[in-house]
Structures are given as structure tokens and as C-alpha cells.
Amino acid sequence: MSSLTQATGGGLIPDPAVLVLEDGSIHRGFTYGAQGETLGEAVFTTGMSGYQETLTDPSYCRQIVVATAPQIGNTGWNSEDGESRVDGATDSSGKVWVSGFVIRDSSRRASNWRSERTLESELAEQGIVGISGVDTRTIVRRLRDRGSMKAGIFSGEALSGGDTDALLEKVRGQESMAGANLSAEVSTTKSYVVSPEETKLRVAALDLGIKSNTPRMLAKRGIEVHVLPHDATLDDIKAINPDGVFLSNGPGDPATADAAVQLTSQVLGEKIPFFGICFGNQILGRALGLDTYKMQFGHRGINVPVKELSTGKVAITSQNHGFALKSPEGGEWDSPFGKAHVTHVCANDDVVEGVALVDGSAFSVQYHPEAAAGPHDASDLFDKFFDLMSGRKAATGTGKAAQ
Q: What residues sit in the active site (predicted)?
């Protein structure tokens, strides 16, 4: 079905669509992308650019993303900037992971030297139901005041009945993000390798929803990256004989990720250098004895300030998370693997943004140092991981160099 209808004056107007929020509010607009019905958790992102990277980030699985930028689609869509991989593919793909997309204004034209098609045509091709023409300022204020909530977008035949009470019932009846275990939905089903031009170190990377740029950033530093499925075991990791273990970003509630926590604990017990980001930060925190909680509306965007406690340095970071670690009293505690401490906090709200073992053998951050599509303030964390692995290899003769 076309998403455009012939108007009385001879022009074309988009077909109607509605966004229904769990609190009962109805937001009317126009079809954007595919027509139909989609359900998910409504969240907002503050990035003024990088919508392609956002839409293809596996961490947004089962979420309806509201863009705060007033106009979306200006730079179109290309085949290079996708941040997802499909079943071990060695290059990034443009698979869209969001459940739905909410925007205010759709750009009338896509203008960029790398653009290959429009954003709306790509969403329609992939069956992603969206809505445009709504007041995103009102929606974002509601989500900030009342928290991220269940939502649904309806258009075409899904809207033909006009019974908004029935639509609200569908929205409220869906699974909550709290308690959702989503790693299996987004993880690769088979291992693959991203190789550098010259291999200096080797890493086992657990894919809980890894973004494509992360292995590229590691490979750029001479690290051979073996990406493993979410259900990989310690034996799978040891078979690679890695110099370090990396835990990726991903969607869902970290309180459900018991298998990943157990694997992380085993890795720490083996004294293998460890680095985690985003979901991986929450997993490391749990392995070190901390609890997690669901935030009111989370951090999503490419402009979140984070303070490093040891130096006072502030980095502008890319983030996408709705859960966080509970801060321990005093910022330091005794973990099963030695003294641990909070290393970073958000400058806006003091949310824990990084933890580590005091001996330096394991560390993690809540943000995205691979930063596709920016900023790049935190990319030196990959250098820190490289130095950690190199130091251990030199001291013990373990890892790739021992082969």
C-alpha cells in the first residue's frame, strides 16, 4: 500500500499514522517508512546527526526511537555507515534494529555525496514503521517527566478501525524492557574474524550486540578480533589463546544476563585482560558485585559529558543505555577479584560511567569509545586496552605471542 494519498487539489499527502504511548497520550502524524503496526519502548536520542548509525545499532532492539533533532533525512542513506552485522558477515550491514522511528519533519531531499537513497525509502524497504509530523518536543518532555514507556506506531490497515482504546490495550500488553533478555536476538550465530594489516595482539570479543566500528577500531591498532556469539564459553575463549577479552554493547536488562556475568567472572579468575563497553560495563559491574537499575529515561545521544574521576578530565561521549550500575558508597569496594572502584561518572547526573579493578587488569565504560558517528574524545580507551594486553604479554609470555 502506498503511504501517499491523492489530495483534493491534486497533490499527494502522506497517509495518517498515530503514536500511542503507555500513559494514554495519542500523537497524530503521517506515515513515514513502512505502513503497519509496531510495538516497543519509546526512548529519545539527542544526536543532531548520525541517524543511520543510531537506527542500525543493535542496542536499540525493541525500541521506538524519537529523534529530538527537528529535521531528519537530510543526508539520505548509504551502504557504508551501517553499524550492524548479520550472522558473521565480515562487513557492516544496514540492518535497522529499531522497532520504529518518530520524527518531526522529513527532509524534502537527501543531499550528500555519499547518499545512495533516501532514509524513508530504506525504512520502507526494511519494513520499519515510522511516523512524521508529530510534535517531538512534547513527546520528549513527556518521556523526560514520566520516563521511557511502552509505545506503538499504527498506520494503514492497523489504523483503519480508528479504535484508539484497542491500540492502547495492545501497547500496554507488550513485554516490558525491564526483565528483557535480548542478547540472543542481536548476536552473531557464528564466529568471525576481523584482521588487521599486521597482527600484534589477539582479542576474543563477545558479541552481545556489537557495533561494526568496534572491531575496526581494534584492528586499526594491530589487534586481531575474534567475534564470538553471546553464548560462547570460557573454553571457546581459551581455544583462541587471546591476549584479552572484550565485552560489547547490547540491548536488554543486564539483570537477566547471568551467563555473560558468569563468563566474565571466569575471565577475571583467569587474569585475562578485560575491557567492556556499555552493556559490557554493566556486566563487569555485576561480576564485581554491583547491582543494576532501570533509569528513568536513560542516556542516548552523542553529546553526553563524562568525568574521569582520577584526572577531572571531561570527555563528550556517545551513549545509548537505559540501565546503569548502582553506585557503591564511597566509590570503592571489595570485589571477589580484589579492590574495585568507580572510574567515571556522568557530569549531568552522576550516573556511574565506568568501573575497574584497582590493579588495572579489568576496566569498562558505559559509553561508546568507537563513537560511530562521533564524537571521538574517548577513542584512546582502545589504546589503553592495547597497552594493558601488551604489558601482560611481556610480563607473562601468555597470549598470542606465546604461540
A: 278 (nucleophile), 368, 370
